[in-house]
Amino acid sequence: MDQLTGALNRAAAIKRIRAIDRTSAQIRKHVLILLDLDDFKHINDSYGHPTGDRALATIAKGINEVINEEDVFGRLGGEEFVIVLRNVDELDVRDRVENLHQTIARSTFEAENREKLNVTASFSYLATSKPLHDFDELYSILDQALYQVKQNGKNQIIDAYNEPIYLPSSAYVPVQP
Questions:
Q1: I want to staple 142 with a disulfide (CB 3.0 to 4.6 A). Which of 42, 45, 124, 131 is the partner?
Q2: pTM of the entire predicted model
């Protein structure tokens, strides 16, 4: 358990996600969401790490209030989180993702100087009825889609399965030591 946010830590979240089997009904989907808080470094740099910690705790509390008990919520590191909404009717997928996006945007927290602040998030998601045991491959797809959202202005949602992902070839060039 991540002590600051109450979310599962990276290892526990990935283990739980990999254990998720296929959905029982074809109209039901598991929705795997990767989200990253926008410009979070600015909060830490401008207001201090205690304010950044307060932001993370506030956002995690809001997420926990709108997800179901069987859903999975984990902190992958820093300001990056993963959520699996389980057994969602395929007609409700986009609404559930947008609800989470809005929950974060509406969350307010207080800086050390008592200033009211908020933060937005960029989301990538995919909905599938298949088992989630190949988390690394799914994470790679979501991460590429999230990179595109960040390049296109942040505070957006992209369906990594149904929307085209256009990344510059430089995004795939390995960094030379």
A1: 124
A2: 0.89
